[in-house]
Amino acid sequence: MAARLCRSLCGLWLLTAATPAGWADPKPPDPKPNPSKSLDLLLTDPRLVPHDTLMSKADWSAIRRAATTRFHPTRDQITDESKPKALLRQLASPATPTTDSPGRALSTDEHIELQESVDATQRAYERPASSRTVEITVKTSETGQVLGMAVSLPSGSPRFDEEAMLCLRDAFASYPPTEERRPMMSRWRVRAGYAVTLPKAMAPMVARTPSGRMPSRGIPLLAPVWGTFDETRGTAQTHHAFADKIETQIELLSRTPD
Fold first, then answer.
1. What is the pLDDT of residues 7-45, one digit of tens each?
2. What number of other Cβ atoms are within 10 A of residue 140's Cβ?
């Protein structure tokens, strides 16, 4: 019995010693590195500054909003025409009436639909017939200070261009792009249009029932003075006919490292 056990152990030892190294169980491969993790670290590294990309950390929309609030051109800065002449040209070239409240199309009140049609027609005749547009280039330093400002596309009125540059300069002073941490060059487009308000056209009442006595058709009534209420701000405002109506628009065309 002991001899048999000894022969078994010797045979097992010889088999183990004669086994090639390649027959052994291979080692498990090393786990592959996660490329997304290194990419996330690269993009979120606060030490990296995008010098050659359009990535922006500054709030340029705040500059645009501040400039829009500050920009208040007058009629003389927009047009050289008198108010009667500007009104005649405005009435001679109306725009196509369009409704800007599609949600009211679901209403079953015929008077609301008729009033929307009248308001769309009035907005078409109150479209500004006189306008000016200027493009301005602004250079800022690493600290966000304005280094230079120049008119790249004049509007034809030096007073209008000066007013547009003044509003942009005040906006950059209130919201300097210090987060950029590099010199920047931005191009802006400033536009203003002049129109004359018309009397408020009130649509005639529409009968709600077939037996109603209110007229279903008629001539819109004209109101020289009317009021509006802003539900978001909770403020009321009074409007007058034949008053100056000035529409402004400020756009950021581009921003690039200088």
1. 655 655 555 555 454 444 555 565 555 554 444 444 444
2. 24
